[in-house]
């Protein structure tokens, strides 16, 4: 059974208007207003559709909205044929009052033609809409058709599984290779640090300097009356007391005779005497006068370490205690122990270098004797 369309076009939805347009065999494209005006124009041009039971409901609504206007026009504009003869005879012809009344009713005869029904309907519909400003333009409504307007709604297809499988996922092998690379880099950096530290600590000269510097820092820490400057007052946080302070040496320490006395009696057996002998005495073959191109070593750590042990053993710290009570800060035991360890390491370095140095000196000596033997026949 074919559907029956009734009611006003103004209150219908776009989907209903499209359905009516399809039934009328006209275009259902465009916005709601365009489809509505297209249907209205088609109904105005095809009055024979009033006899069609499918579309008669649309014409009934339109006639009902136009009926009061036509009735008013018929009452305000009576035709000459509708007037009864008795009424015309009863009115005096030469009565000025009736003449004015007749003229009053005859004025609409000039505009007897009434506005066509479609135009009146459009005017009434326009009056129902809110006025638009000249600058404002009507915005398109329902530009995107809804699933109901598309006819049953289209189902959005789900993402294919092949695309989901092609998405890159974290690879276990890649993560393991990255971890192995990080471990290899860390091991390489650790080995480089180890080799650098070994090259620094495998020199008897560096060991001698490090031991001297360590002793000096310990003595300064003991003999200086350090003072504290509080940057942050003590605060209790989670049961612990936190504070921030800076330790500094007062300037009055530099003017104390005891301070300089302790430093001088420490420096004489530890730095001054060993450095003097280490610069003057050296048994290294490199410094031999028979070398073709001797490389002078201005400081022999082995000689300085041996002299340091000897001077620490014979230095009169006990006799100096009568002048300064705390002149020996380290004590005889620790002074001799550190000096002996430094001397032993210097001996180890000299023993390791001795074979190569002896071979080089022997080759140089043989070359010198050969040149001397060749020079004697030439002189004779």
From TrEMBL:
Q: Name one GO cellular component term.
A: membrane
**Assigned keywords, A-Z:** Membrane, Transmembrane, Transmembrane helix
User: Would the keyword Nucleotidyltransferase turn up in this protein's UniProt record?
Assistant: no
The source's domain of life comes to Eukaryota
Q: Could you tell me which InterPro entries the record lists for this protein?
A: Put_GTT3 (IPR038872)
Region Disordered, residue ranges: 65-104
**Transmembrane domains' residue ranges:** 207-224, 263-285
> For bias kind Low complexity, which ranges apply?
70-84
Q: What is this protein called?
A: SAP domain-containing protein
């Amino acid at each position: 059974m074919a559907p029956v369309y009734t009611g006003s076009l103004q209150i219908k939805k776009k989907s209903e208007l499209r359905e009516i347009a399809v039934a009328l065999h006209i275009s259902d494209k465009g916005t709601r207003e365009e489809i509505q005006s297209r249907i209205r124009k088609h109904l105005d041009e095809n009055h024979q559709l009033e006899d069609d039971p499918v579309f008669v409901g649309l014409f009934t609504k339109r006639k009902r909205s136009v009926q009061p206007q036509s009735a008013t026009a018929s009452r305000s504009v009576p035709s000459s044929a509708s007037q009864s003869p008795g009424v015309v005879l009863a009115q005096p012809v030469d009565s000025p009052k009736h003449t004015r009344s007749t003229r009053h009713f005859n004025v609409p005869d000039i505009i007897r033609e009434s506005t066509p029904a479609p135009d009146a309907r459009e005017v009434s519909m326009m009056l129902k809409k809110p006025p638009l400003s000249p600058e404002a333009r009507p915005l398109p409504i329902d530009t995107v058709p809804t699933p109901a307007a598309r006819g049953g709604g289209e189902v959005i297809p789900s993402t294919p599984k092949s695309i989901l499988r092609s998405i890159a996922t974290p690879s276990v092998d890649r993560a393991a290779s990255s971890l192995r690379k990080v471990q290899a880099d860390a091991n390489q950096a650790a080995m480089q640090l180890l080799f650098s530290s070994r090259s620094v600590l495998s020199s008897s000269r560096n060991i001698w300097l490090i031991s001297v510097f360590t002793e000096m820092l310990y003595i300064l820490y003991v003999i200086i009356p350090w003072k504290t400057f509080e940057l942050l007052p003590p605060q209790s946080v989670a049961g612990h007391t936190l504070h921030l302070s800076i330790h500094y040496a007062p300037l009055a320490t530099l003017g104390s005779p005891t301070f300089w006395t302790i430093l001088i009696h420490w420096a004489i057996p530890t730095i001054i005497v060993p450095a003097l002998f280490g610069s003057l005495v050296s048994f290294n073959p490199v410094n031999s006068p028979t070398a073709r191109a001797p490389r002078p070593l201005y400081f022999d750590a082995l000689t300085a370490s041996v002299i340091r042990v000897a001077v620490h053993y014979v230095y009169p710290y006990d006799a100096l205690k009568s002048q300064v009570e705390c002149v020996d800060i380290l004590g005889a035991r620790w002074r001799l122990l550190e000096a002996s360890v430094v001397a032993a390491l210097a001996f180890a370095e000299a023993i390791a270098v001795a074979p190569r140095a002896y071979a080089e000196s022997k080759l140089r000596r043989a070359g010198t004797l050969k040149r001397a033997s060749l020079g004697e026949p030439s002189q004779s």
